[in-house]
Amino acid sequence: MAITEQPGPVVPMTTPPDPAEIDRNLYLDFLSRKVMRGWMEREVPPTDIPWTPLRRPLPASTIALISSAGVALRSQPPFDQEGERRNPWWGDPSYRPIPRTTRTADVQLFHLHIDTSFGARDLNCVLPLERLDELAAAGEIGRSAPTHYSFMGYLLKPDEFLRTSAPAMIRRMRAEAVDVALLVPV
Fold it and tell me: How far apart are CA 70 and CA 186, in angstroms?
């Protein structure tokens, strides 16, 4: 006799999910997963979070999105997943510029720590360019920036990313007169 569970009522989530349940580090061996969990538990949150007030209201602002989903145009080089498979402590520190007119069919996702199938079916799940266009059309924001950005968010040692990719993205955003950079973490 088989025992089956009957579906119960949907209960709204009242506490944030355990980070280990979101990113199970599927490509790490048992010992590395234990080390990662210990590392996450010992991470000290910043005591001083920098804050820059808006210079102009949102309906007059240019907004750029920055996604950690590893989105790349089909015409761009993929993010380096093989390097991470060889060395699970490494993550590709590069970034990809994504034009505002990009749609789902134009991209591929390269990330070992998220389920990329959602973004492959609908780019707006990981880089909501169409939703940003809708906000601009409704007058909620001024406009979508000409260029948006993506990087592969699994960076245990972000030194190279912070030294090269982050300043390069900032320079491009300044050149395009971006007022707000909105991080889309996945």
Answer: 10
